[in-house]
Inverse folding.
């Protein structure tokens, strides 16, 4: 298959806003990981091989807190499971692609690239360079993430004692800034309240097992709140 | 430590790549249950809040609502700014500023 260069470049171009958005997170991730005492090779390996921002952040927090391996793997699974949705949603559009392309593009499937390529693939399929467009977006996101991770690692190394400066707080602030806007939705608020309470109560459980319990409680609370909200308009009682 | 890290990362790679491959490569054999799809919607908020709350309320292990705990006002500041502005970066920076000033004051 010869590569459609114009489509590849269009994929890169349409991904530029996502690159800008991801940059600070790459820097924060690299810096935080170094400040939490994770060796450079492992920080770079996380970005290069796992390549899934939120699960990388969570993993740094778990590794720093002495979590058990199964907790780290299970959390990664839960946090990244949404990618299966993207994988499922893109499948009809890319059935004709050779398997090696699907294996390759799947590796780079992120929230951002999905957001960029989904519309084009759904409406035009892989015709007219759809695969090259997807590849362009993927490569741009990938190289961008590696670059900003390295920048963060260098920053973390050049300022020793960042942890004492309160860089561990940066992780809390980052998570809070990501979650807060979602709390406008009632069921998400319920999920957050349940997860936060369980996490607080279960914080002394070993291996960060409390996180798993809290996540489970949060998801159940969210589903329950969603069901309650759905049954309300029918107005059984006032 | 090194062995554990290697295993942690290797497992994360297998899990993450496996999820991404799932439908794109093995799609004809899989179904995605609707309940799971709805449950996924709550995962990010649940996991992130589960990480935030103990760190903000009990940074040293015990619940600490005293002025000595700068994590709490800093986290509340970041969350408030993000809630109203939906802007992540300013929220983080402002949270950090509150945290820094608080630590310097108390």
């Amino acid at each position: 298959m010869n590569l459609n260069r114009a489509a590849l470049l269009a994929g890169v171009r349409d991904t530029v806003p996502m690159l800008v958005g991801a940059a600070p997170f790459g820097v924060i991730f690299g810096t935080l990981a170094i400040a939490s005492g994770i060796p450079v090779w492992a920080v770079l390996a996380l970005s290069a091989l796992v390549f899934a921002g939120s699960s990388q952040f969570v993993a740094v927090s778990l590794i720093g807190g002495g979590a058990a391996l199964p907790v780290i793997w299970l959390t990664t699974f839960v946090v990244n499971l949404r990618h299966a949705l993207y994988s499922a949603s893109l499948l009809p559009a890319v059935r004709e692609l050779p398997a090696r392309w699907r294996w390759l593009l799947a590796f780079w499937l992120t929230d951002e690239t999905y957001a960029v390529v989904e519309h084009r693939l759904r409406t035009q399929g892989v015709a007219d360079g759809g695969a090259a467009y997807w590849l362009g977006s993927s490569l741009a996101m990938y190289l961008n993430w590696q670059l900003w991770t390295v920048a963060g690692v260098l920053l973390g190394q050049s300022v020793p004692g960042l942890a004492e400066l309160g860089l561990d707080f940066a992780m809390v602030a980052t998570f809070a800034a990501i979650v807060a806007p979602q709390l406008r939705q009632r069921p998400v608020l319920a999920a957050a309240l349940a997860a936060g309470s369980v996490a607080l109560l279960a914080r002394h459980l070993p291996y960060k097992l409390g996180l798993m319990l809290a996540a489970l409680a949060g998801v159940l609370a969210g589903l329950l709140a969603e069901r309650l909200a759905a049954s309300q308009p029918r107005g059984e009682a006032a | 430590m090194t062995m554990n890290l290697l295993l942690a990362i290797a497992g994360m790679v297998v899990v993450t790549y496996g999820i991404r491959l799932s439908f794109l490569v093995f799609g004809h054999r899989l179904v995605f249950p609707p309940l799971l799809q709805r449950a996924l919607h709550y995962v990010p908020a649940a996991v992130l809040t589960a990480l935030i709350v103990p760190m903000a309320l009990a940074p040293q292990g015990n619940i600490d609502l005293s002025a000595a705990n700068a994590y709490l006002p800093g986290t509340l500041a970041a969350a408030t700014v993000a809630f109203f502005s939906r802007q992540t970066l300013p929220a983080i920076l402002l949270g950090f500023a509150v945290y820094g000033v608080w630590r310097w004051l108390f």
User: Anything to note?
Assistant: Residues 38 and 64 of chain A are 8 Å apart (CA to CA). Chain A has two domains: 5-163, 185-238.
